[in-house]
Amino acid sequence: MNYEYFIAKRIIGSKAYKSSISAPIIKIGIAAIAIGMVVMMIAIATGIGLQEKIREKVVAFNGHATITNYDSNASQESIVPISKTQEFYPEFNTVEGVTHIQAVATKFGVIRTETDFEGAILKGVGNDYNWQYFDEFLVEGRLPLFEKKWSEEVLISEYLANRLGFSLGDKFQMYFLKDDTEKPPNIISFKIVGIYSSGFQEFDAQYLIGNLKHIQRINSWTEDQIGNFEVFIDDYDDIERMGVAIFQNTPSTLNTATINEKFYSIIEWVKIFDKNIYGIIGIMILVAGINMITALLVLILERTQMIGILKALGSSNWSIRKLFLYNASYLIILGLFWGNILGLGVLFAQKYFKILKMNPDVYYVTEAPVYINWSYIFGLNIGTLALCLVMLLIPSYIITKISPVKAIRFE
Fold first, then answer.
1. What is d(CA 230, CA 232) in angstroms, rounded to the nearest whole number?
2. Which of 4, 20, 220, 236 has its CA 20 to 30 A from that of 316?
3. pTM
4. For 114-142, how does the pLDDT look when each residue is reduced to its tens digit (9 = 90+)?
């Protein structure tokens, strides 16, 4: 029989225990564990959620990696064409982990209305384009269809539509300068069939998605020529190795750049969230541990006579320490239970009702994204319990210094 667990269970279940002097301190300790758990869960869920959402949006507009011509400059406009006749296209089978490759091109132009004008980038795409991300971003209308050779259908951002006063179904003209600026610009009419909002204003303010053939015609390219290839992989965590592998499996005349290289400042800013998460977890566990140490010391002080009696009856110091550790474990688990209930409640409320809004100019998202994974929640609970118990081993050592004779006479 585990008599330490038996005695601890009797103490926890007694009415005197619940109305004792230590009761308020114990409640504070439980509350500290619960609040700490809520804060840690929110920090991890929103931190990882924000990281994934921002990366996801960067990938939506660029792929995980882009294959371009070395002669291309640093602008976002396709200058030097690439032939679509490549061994790695339309299926990049030579590198395991590549899920999709698509041919695109970009061209800067000016959208002109009766009262206003706005510079924008037309991103030309073909039938091989992966609309997965924009299907999620779509707020009105539908995705463009390129059944006709010179399809006028385009997908425009909500940001650009609001700035120019456009609505679904409107038609507009876009002007594209020729290499010889003395000649009149190319003018193409487009029809808005869909409006998207990624929440990433840096991209929303620039891109509208249309037919690749228009850019090929403006640039006097053949149907075989495109601006660049966008490559998608199945695991972002492996992007550095995959970037090297893709580069090694393409011709020497072509260059490969991952989004980590193209958008270095954004990706590095996102990585800072990891340090914030670790810092918050460390502080919360430390605060919870200190509160539990205080509660344990009060419990020991309150049960000094019982400790003396148990020692007089032959109990070892370790047995008595285990008794109080069992008691403390119950309090920690109780705090974790309420912390999980409250934490998950907050996270699911944010996930489904979008309560907390964010400034897209700063965070690239319109609401705080939430990442819920049961593995990290389980790990957080086990880790908090284990670390708190380890911290409680030190104050429980005070039991070894208690004299049975003095303890029995203690009042």
1. 7
2. 20
3. 0.84
4. 888 899 999 999 999 999 999 999 999 99
